[in-house]
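TA notes, week 10

Several of you asked for a full example with nothing omitted. So below is the full record: structure tokens for the whole chain, then the designed sequence directly under it. When grading your own attempts, check the secondary structure regions first.
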């Protein structure tokens, strides 16, 4: 008699397990459908503009201690009082109105951490029209920063 009851309990347990499995699958399918639907609205769209800066130095340094290439300035033999000048043309061709800014770091000395060069170097940044890497054709210069008149 025990075998009969045990078999009946196993059948009921198996039926309950299968029922839970089937109902879980149905709930999962319904939930996935509710949270994975997509739609589109052609009138509801947006686009972005572009900000594009380019320069004409072709990846070359403006100043070099080695042999100077096209547009570069050799600085290996610099002497006190010597003036060294170079230019790079920066062009903005983006589709949005923008202000182009130049940033510099380490333009001042702090007591105890100085390289000792700031007092001997004069950096002047000018904005002009025309010109190319190496200053060929540079014209219309307007000084926008000068280390001799600005405190670091």
């Amino acid at each position: 008699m025990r075998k009969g009851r045990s078999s009946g309990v196993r059948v009921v347990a198996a039926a309950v397990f299968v029922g839970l499995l089937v109902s879980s699958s149905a709930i999962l399918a319904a939930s996935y459908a509710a949270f994975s639907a997509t739609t589109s609205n052609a009138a509801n769209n947006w686009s972005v503009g572009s900000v594009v800066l380019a320069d004409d130095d072709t990846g070359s340094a403006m100043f070099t201690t080695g042999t100077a290439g096209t547009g570069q300035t050799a600085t290996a033999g610099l002497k006190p009082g010597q003036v060294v000048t170079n230019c790079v043309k920066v062009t903005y061709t983006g589709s949005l109105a923008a202000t182009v800014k130049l940033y510099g770091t380490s333009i001042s000395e702090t007591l105890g951490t100085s390289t000792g060069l700031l007092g001997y170097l004069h950096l002047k940044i000018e904005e002009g029209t025309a010109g190319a890497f190496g200053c060929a054709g540079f014209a219309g210069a307007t000084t926008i920063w000068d280390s001799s008149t600005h405190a670091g």
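Residues 58 and 77 are 25 Å apart (CA to CA). Use that as a sanity check on your answer.
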